[in-house]
Structure formats: C-alpha cells, structure tokens
Amino acid sequence: MLNDRSLQVLLEGKIFEEQPLGGISRIYHEILPRICQMDEQISFLILTSGRLLQPLPKHPQIGGNPSTFPVDRYLRPKRIFWQLQDYLRAKVQIASIQSDRNSIWHATYFRLPNWWEGPRVASVYDLIYEKYYHFFNKGSDNILRERKKRSVLAADKVICISESVRSDVIEIYGLPKERVIAIPLACGDSFKKMSREEFAPHFYVDQPFILYVGTRHPYKNFETLLSAYAAWPRRSEIKLVVVGNPWSREELKEIATAGLQSDIIRRSSISDEELCALYNQALAFVYPSLSEGFGIPLLEAMACGCPIVASRIPTSLEIARDVPYYFDPLNKDELIAALDAACFSEEIKSRDDILAEYSWDRTARATLQVYKELSLYT
Fold it and tell me: How far apart are CA 155 and CA 151, in angstroms?
C-alpha cells in the first residue's frame, strides 16, 4: 500500500511492445527517469504483456508488470471483439496490483479501461488518422480511431504534444479547453553543431546532399519531394540522402522510372551520432509532411545549424516559426524554389532562442505537474 504522500502512475505500456525504438516510446524513455529524479515520492508501474520490442525506461522508481498469463495469445482481434480484448487484457495485468486513492492511469496509446475509478490521463500525439481518413481506412485504423476517441473522452486530463494538436483535440472531440493541455517535446542533447573533424570519418558523405529523415507514409508527402527532386535542375550536383526503412516495391519502381537510382542514398538503423553528422553536412533538411503532431526533426536540424525546407503546416509554423524556407506541401514548384533558396542562400537562420524553449526537463516537469493536479498529492 502506498503511503499518504506517494503517487503511483500506472502507465499503459503497449507502445513498448509495438515499436522497436524511437517514435512515441522515445518520449517516455526521456521523461519518466527525469520525473523520478524530480520527485522521489512518485513511482511508475508500466503494464505490458511481457513481449517487448525494446527495454523499458530505467530508474529505481520505475517497475514493469508483465502479465503472468499470455493473454494476448488468446485475445487476438480475429477471436474476440477489441473492446472485450482491451478489458480482459487490462484486468489480467492489474489483478495483482494494490493501489489506493493516489494511483493514476496514464493511457499512452489509447487504452483506458472503463472500470478504472482513479484519475485518468490520456496522451494524444496527432489527429492524422482523423484528418486523413483516406490514408487510414483499414479495419485496424477504425479500431485505433475508436480507441482514441474513447480514451480522450474518458480522460480527466488530455496531454497533447503541441498547441496545434491541442486545438485539433478541442475541435474534433468538443472537449472543454481546461481539460486539454499542450506539453511540447524536445530533441536530444546529442544534436549540436559540429565540424567535420568532430564526427567519425565513416559518417562523412563526400558529395553535397539534401536530407530526408523518417517514415514515408503517404501523409509524410515523400512522393512530392521525390517528384520535385527529379525535376530540380541542380539534381546533378546534389544527392538526396534518405534516412528510413528499406524501399517498397512501388518506391523502387518510381525511383527507376524517374532515373534517380544513382542520385539517392538511403541509410537505415543509424545512431543519433550519425544522424547528427548528416544534419551537420546537409545543404538542407527537407520536411514535406502534410501534417505532423510536433516535429522533433525540425529541432534536431536547427540544433545542428542545418537549413530547413518545410511544408507550411501548423506544427512547423508553431515549432520552427520563421526559420524554415516554407512551401505549399502540394506545390512541387514551390518546393523546388525553397530548395534553391535553402541550398544557395548566404543567409544563416539560426535561432538559439527557439531551441532554448524546448527541453526534455521541461516536458517532464509539466507532465509531473499534471499528475500532481489530478491526485491528492500536494
């Protein structure tokens, strides 16, 4: 049993079972140990099935509670309704947990059981599934949308990773403003300005290049970048370095049709140190998304002093402000003009004042404050 000043957070940990590294799970790897360092009276219990794709965040005040029964083996979507699946999964995971009035449930990936009687927190990272239904129209996508809606509507506090996402949540779900809070993210300390001599020789790219980082789902708008790059008159001088997963069959066909096989360099599974070296060498970092929840790569590029070419979307304007060379995400010609401006302009757009506003310590502190406000802990 917890003492009168203790605060326990039950953290739904499904995301650690679905992501090998990075993405949403990165947020909790960054903030949970920091929260524990800030307050020795708080503890986290991360609820998982035990089948993890990555280690859980590490700290003496962080515990894992894998299910002692292989519930997921029997609760597959084809065998049982997903509502009942979530209910039984949570029941099995929490059966051995003793909690009191100071326990909070934090739904990190939209699993918030109806029977939980304590305070409830839900995190929302974007509304892309809701805004771009035509990209996410499978049965599993509908399930995720419904889970998110139920989680958001049932939460006492909803944490959003940007003001843009907060506005979307308030508008789409009709929540009162006071229930929804924006807590921005940050980038890692390993991203900084470096000279060529400071990074490993094998990180060096011996040709001028522009840089793309991330997945290539349709909403990321990589196809427009590919089309603009193919039509760019400076393409013969400047390579395109793509950091991300292996090419799909369709992408390989598009690259071959455009005659770009020798112009594109793909890297995958790279470290933050190598990514930092790429930002430091690139003529420009290109961020062409149709929509984003935050935009950590914008901060990474800024921290490395890399010029940025970004689509004119709410989160980029919110996070990076006047630093990028902006373009209409559906206008290939505007993207080409922005590439020219970024790669060949002598103007240096460096805004350390913007970077100073974002840190994982601030993210952790603001999250801890949400927990405290929802508990009897003072």
Answer: 6
Q: In degrees, to the nearest 5, what angle opens at C-alpha 308 toward C-alphas 343 and 30?
A: 145
Mean pLDDT of the chain: 89
In the chain, DSSP finds a helix count (H) and a strand count (E) of 15, 13
Rounded to an integer, the average pLDDT of 15-27 is 87
Token readout for 236 is: 């013969």
pTM, full prediction: 0.89
With residue 65 as reference, give the H or E element that holds it.
strand 62-66
Question: Cα(4)–Cα(104) distance, rounded to whole angstroms?
Answer: 14
Cβ contact 144:109 at 8 Å: no
The 8-class DSSP code of residue 366 comes to H
- Do the Cβ atoms of 110 and 127 come closer than 8 Å? no
Q: Which two tokens stand for residue 328?
A: 């209409």
Q: What angle do CA 48, 53, 58 make, to 5 degrees?
A: 70
Q: Which domains does the chain carry?
A: 7-186+359-374 (3.40.50.2000), 196-355 (3.40.50.2000)
pLDDT 10s digits, 142-169: 999 999 999 999 999 999 999 999 999 9
In the structure, what pLDDT confidence band is assigned to residue 334 with cuts at 50, 70 and 90?
very high
* Nearest residue to 8 via CA among 106, 89, 155: 106
Query: Apex CA 144: angle with CA 141 and CA 147, to 5°?
Result: 150
**Where residue 85 falls among pLDDT bands split at 50, 70, 90?**
low
d(CA 120, CA 154): 8
